[in-house]
Q: What sequence folds into this?
């Protein structure tokens, strides 16, 4: 039997003050353009906005809002949500003495929408480290139900919903945060829960008012020549800032999408109908274009493969998606074997696409059987070729042990941290297959993400062979972690290959139907995650 979580607080509950306010979050079709800062939320007449307050050593809960979605959760549509401010007092210092202060609590559900909604909660530990936690709240309306959640183990008994930690976020150090969320269903009204408890401690209070002067804002314009309401229009030219992928407005973002299979085998899968489905039904942010070098790939017909990659980059741009150009080396595992081919290929592709803002270059898919120093040497020769034509694009560098940060070779991220590639605006690749790569791999990513900009350019829901049974629990744990760390990802594969990692059922690409009825179990699971609203 699991031991009950330990509360970080004394038994005296904190006193809280609730301040109502209103704001508007922007959804997938209503995003600010790159470089366009629309300022703080606009407050309707009769409402107040919360202002920033000092924060004590206690828990800070931020209920991030909810959005109605259709009953089958296919077409998210963000609506207004309410923000609330709780001022908490009564916490204690580590020496046991009392400390008074304030904590910010933003809370809200969407407007009434029969069918469903989505909501998020952020927990930030401002006190001593804690191991084991449980969040509880009560739905005000009997028709509100939790359907599916992430980043916690969600359950519901009557009107009471509970979110308990999962293994990888069980421990929260001082200053650490956990972002949780769930999709829910409702049969009528959709009011905000009145209170939340964490490990049994309730934060409640009485209403006060806070006034904030309003200042008109003048939106700036953007020159991004991309369709409105798309990931590309929202973010423009990407770059690396710190350990994150950031947009033109210097905001950290996460991209989610799909990888093609080898173009030499599954080129027929990438047509107008399939790409429209990926952009408009899946709401994918990116398409990874996997161009094999060997195995009847690029080396057999460089001109055809180069042209096909360029065409798909343009197709992605037309639909407002980013495109990863994947130089898919696998066997031999030493990327230096293909160094000359890489220079030729990337010189041509970078020259062709330099004016586009949607291109990301992945220069070595899965190095294996080779040292990090050799991979680094390869990268430092290929990157200047790209930069000569396209100086602004993000470049992703493969890592040792089939892009496992060296874990599959018995190493870890420290070899990269201690000897990074001598280049700027780069990220490092991590790949995983959920049924094969579990806790020790997740622990490495959690640790490495604090020091290295990571991009999961390929992952599978099954074993590393691309086959086997779907591991839903491990896949969910992985995607929860990537969401928490804001690490972008692409799933292997958007194809109808006769293997369990494929998103489409065999024979799909021979027709024109790429709807949900043609998805495999893996495709349905991954689509359910990708189709949720972005946080740009």
A:
């Amino acid at each position: 039997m699991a031991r009950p979580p330990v509360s970080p607080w004394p038994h005296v509950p904190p006193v809280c003050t609730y301040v109502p306010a209103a704001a508007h979050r922007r959804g997938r079709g209503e995003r600010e353009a790159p470089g366009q800062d629309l300022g703080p939320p606009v407050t309707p007449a009769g409402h107040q906005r919360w202002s920033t307050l000092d924060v004590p050593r206690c828990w800070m809960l931020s209920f991030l809002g909810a959005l109605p979605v259709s009953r089958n959760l296919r077409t998210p549509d963000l609506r207004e949500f309410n923000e609330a401010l709780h001022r908490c007092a009564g916490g204690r210092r580590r020496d046991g003495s009392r400390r008074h202060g304030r904590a910010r609590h933003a809370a809200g559900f969407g407007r009434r929408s029969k069918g469903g909604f989505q909501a998020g909660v952020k927990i930030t530990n401002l006190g001593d480290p804690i191991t084991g936690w449980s969040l509880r709240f009560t739905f005000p309306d009997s028709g509100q139900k939790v359907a599916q959640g992430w980043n916690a183990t969600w359950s519901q008994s009557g009107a009471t919903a509970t979110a308990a930690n999962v293994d990888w976020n069980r421990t929260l150090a001082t200053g650490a945060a956990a972002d949780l969320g769930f999709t829910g269903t409702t049969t009528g009204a959709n009011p905000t829960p009145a209170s939340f408890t964490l490990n049994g401690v309730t934060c409640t209070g009485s209403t006060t008012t806070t006034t904030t002067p309003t200042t008109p804002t003048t939106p700036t314009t953007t020159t991004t020549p991309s369709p409105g309401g798309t990931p590309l229009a929202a973010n423009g030219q990407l770059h690396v800032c710190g350990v994150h992928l950031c947009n033109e407005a210097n905001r950290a973002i996460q991209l989610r999408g799909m990888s093609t299979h080898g173009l030499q085998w599954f080129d027929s899968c990438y047509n107008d109908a399939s790409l429209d489905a990926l952009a408009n039904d899946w709401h994918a942010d990116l398409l990874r274009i996997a161009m094999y070098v060997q195995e009847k790939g690029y080396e057999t017909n460089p001109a055809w493969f180069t042209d096909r990659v360029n065409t798909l980059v343009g197709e992605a741009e037309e639909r407002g998606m980013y495109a990863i150009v994947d130089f898919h080396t696998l066997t031999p595992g030493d990327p230096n074997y293909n160094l000359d081919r890489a220079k030729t290929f990337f010189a041509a592709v970078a020259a062709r696409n330099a004016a586009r803002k949607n291109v990301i270059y992945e220069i070595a898919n899965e190095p294996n059987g080779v040292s990090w120093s050799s991979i680094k040497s390869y990268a430092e020769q290929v990157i200047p070729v790209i930069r000569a034509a396209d100086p602004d694009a993000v470049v992703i560098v493969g890592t040792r042990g089939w892009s496992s940060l060296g874990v599959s070779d018995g190493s870890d991220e420290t070899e990269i941290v201690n000897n990074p590639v001598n280049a700027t605006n780069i990220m490092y690749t991590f790949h995983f297959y959920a049924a094969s790569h579990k806790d020790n791999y997740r622990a490495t990513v959690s640790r490495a993400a604090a020091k290295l900009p990571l991009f999961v350019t390929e992952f599978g829901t099954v074993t590393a062979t691309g086959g086997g049974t779907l591991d839903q629990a491990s896949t969910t744990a992985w995607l929860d972690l990537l969401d928490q760390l804001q690490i972008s990802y692409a799933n292997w594969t958007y194809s109808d290959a006769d293997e369990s990692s494929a998103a489409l059922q065999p024979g799909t690409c021979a027709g024109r139907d790429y709807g949900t009825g043609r998805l495999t179990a893996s495709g349905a699971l991954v689509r359910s995650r990708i189709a949720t609203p972005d946080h740009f």
